[in-house]
Automatic annotation (TrEMBL):
The keyword NAD applies. PROSITE patterns: D_2_HYDROXYACID_DH_3. GO terms for molecular function: NAD binding; oxidoreductase activity, acting on the CH-OH group of donors, NAD or NADP as acceptor. Belongs to the D-isomer specific 2-hydroxyacid dehydrogenase family. It comes from the Bacteria. Residues 31-300 form the D-isomer specific 2-hydroxyacid dehydrogenase catalytic domain. This is Phosphoglycerate dehydrogenase-like enzyme. Residues 101-269 form the D-isomer specific 2-hydroxyacid dehydrogenase NAD-binding domain. Keywords: NAD, Oxidoreductase.
Length: 306
């Protein structure tokens, strides 16, 4: 009989994760005996570094967040270890949220939700529109499938030329500026890295159509916030749906809150109720892969930053 994989669960004991460890053939142990560390919260990289000092035998570290930018910035991602993120785990609910924001913007739901009179009738359809998704990972793939019934023309921007199912075209990042002016909807779904930080700036926004809308479900700092505020105020674009912002949380009184063309949700594309069971499933799968000597799902490229 194969012995259980020794796993340390920290910094909090999440019952769903403890059950997932057992279901995946693991056993929760004290830090010095662990081969795998499951980090149970999306923050506190300094605490993670201190925990790793107590885990001299750890080989794999599993993080519950899809993006690892805060851990990378803190210098925690030791390249001698195998780092595993939750990328792809939350793709379906995040894609659902991106679609929700898109439809709400096109149908002027933000304006109507606050209205106190009949007002002006306006709204546009998503059917037959042109959509550009910046990012070619799990969110893009799930969103592409959700967009099929709308008959959109979908272009996906990604690092590699591999096609995305249901997309009509796949382009490299250096061609975004060339294509953004054709899009009715631009969805940002990339992780934060040196290459993506600030990529949606005043120049790119100026290239968008005045009737187009921007949706960001990736990372806030991919969009230059001050440039977006200026673009919305000037009517350069027709609206922005943001589940992520820079800074985050977005402070009270920030100009985006009062901007009539902005629809903001507080990083709720995947909530605690959604992400705990989804990450638990990833724990089960990856512990089985660890025991079998297989590559983990969600492997982090430390050099690339995601």
């Amino acid at each position: 009989m194969t012995p259980p994989v020794p796993v340390h669960l920290a910094p909090t004991d999440v019952p769903e994760y403890r059950r997932a460890i057992a279901a995946g053939g693991g056993e929760v142990v004290d830090a010095p005996h662990a081969r795998v560390l499951v980090w149970s919260i999306h923050r506190e990289p300094e605490a993670l570094a201190r925990t790793l000092e107590r885990c001299p035998r750890v080989e794999w570290v599993m993080l519950p967040s899809a993006g690892v930018d805060r851990f990378l910035a803190a210098g925690v991602l030791d390249p001698s270890l195998t780092w595993v993120s939750a990328k792809g785990v939350y793709a379906r609910p995040v894609a659902e949220h991106a679609l929700t924001l898109t439809l709400a913007l096109l149908r002027s739901i933000r304006e109507r939700a606050r209205a106190e009179s009949w007002g002006v009738k306006r709204g546009r359809t998503l059917f037959g529109s042109r959509v550009l998704v910046i990012g070619g990972g799990g969110i893009a793939r799930e969103l592409a499938a959700l967009l099929v019934p709308f008959g959109v023309h979908l272009t996906v921007c990604r690092r590699t030329p591999d096609p995305v199912a249901f997309a009509h075209a796949t382009i490299a990042p250096d061609r975004v500026a060339e294509h953004v002016g054709d899009a009715d909807v631009v969805v940002v779904a990339v992780p934060l890295s040196d290459a993506t930080r600030g990529m949606v700036d005043a120049d790119l926004l100026a290239r968008m159509k005045e009737s187009s809308v921007l949706v960001n479900v990736g990372r806030g700092a991919v969009v230059v916030t001050d440039d977006l505020v200026d673009a919305l105020a000037a009517g350069t674009i027709a609206g922005a749906g943001l589940d992520v912002t820079d800074p985050e949380p977005l402070p009270d009184g920030h100009p985006l809150w009062s901007q009539e063309l902005a629809l903001i949700t507080p990083h709720t594309a995947n909530t605690h109720e959604m992400n705990v069971p989804l990450f638990a499933d990833r724990i089960v799968e990856n512990l089985e892969r660890y025991a079998a000597g297989r590559r983990p799902r969600g492997l982090v490229d430390v050099a690339a930053g995601y």
